[in-house]
Amino acid sequence: MSTIAAKRCAFAALLLLAAGARAQLQPAQLGLVVNDADPASVALGAYYAQLRGIPPAHIAHVSIPGRPHGLDADAFTRLRSEIDRQLPAEARAVLFAWTAPYAVECNSLTSAYTLGFDAAQCERSCAPGRKNPYFNGKVLPPGMRLSMLLPAEPLDVARAVAERGKAAGFSVPQAGAYFLQTSEATRNSRARFFPPSGAIPARKLAIHTLRQDALEGAQDIMFYQTGMARVDKLETLHFLPGALADHLTSYGGDLLGSGQMSSQRWLEAGATASYGTVSEPCNHWQKFPHPQILLQHYLSGATAIEAYWRSVAWPAQGLFIGEPLARPYPR
Fold this sequence. Notes:
Low-confidence stretches: 10-21
Strand content: 15-25%
Largest sheet: 5 strands, mixed
Helix content: 25-40%
Order of helices and strands: HEHEEHEEEHHEHEEEEEHEHHE
Number of helices: 9
Structural class: alpha/beta
Number of strands: 14
Radius of gyration: 18 Å
């Protein structure tokens, strides 16, 4: 990699850092949704509300018995109406405190809630998706409410994820961003957007863009993006508070599925937020987090939910999971 390429990468990130200050999501602007029919959801909701100081007026209570993996469109419409009826207008984002449901037919729960259910995507799941109006944006469009899901089980993992999110940003650590182009060629569709290896001194961040199937032994991870159906050697890694990690594969968002690695494995390994699709998206890069856009917005001071939502152009099938308020790079 040339020195010029590294400087270009650093310069692009620093341009965003130098951009005009923008208001970032605060705990007082978050709505929390608890499933009273799910004891794990109730326990996580109580813990998260205390940890982040979420007032009772910002907590919506619903009842979804049986913990179904997905909802049909009609059931989701009723659920969304019940949530919106309870939350105040100042709630700019929503956190679902449960593991399931996480899908609405072929859509993810988070995208269906934020953008509305997209029935056309279910007719042709591999077709291009509806554009995200917040993609690479600076300001949340009027009336748009972001959403993320924090899996409630195992409960100790969920609590640890929330704690990592709160710990992020107290000090800016020396960190690494890892982008892996792997031997699974069909899962490398976004590799052309990986930033070149180099350094961003203002954020104490070293970028490592590699050609290999797994990362082993890294202890400074703030970003990890790859393309694999299953990611090996996660047990050898250490993720810093606020770390984002995801893998491009078809069913990462199928949290309770067994066909491919669930995105929840990233949270269990130590990441703070992740992303995966709940139905077959094919390998359109637009249906997955764009590496440079995710990197730049997170480094600019965005929260995890804001950076992840800004990075996906066609998110109908994509589930955003983790701790939404994590912000390791405050202004």
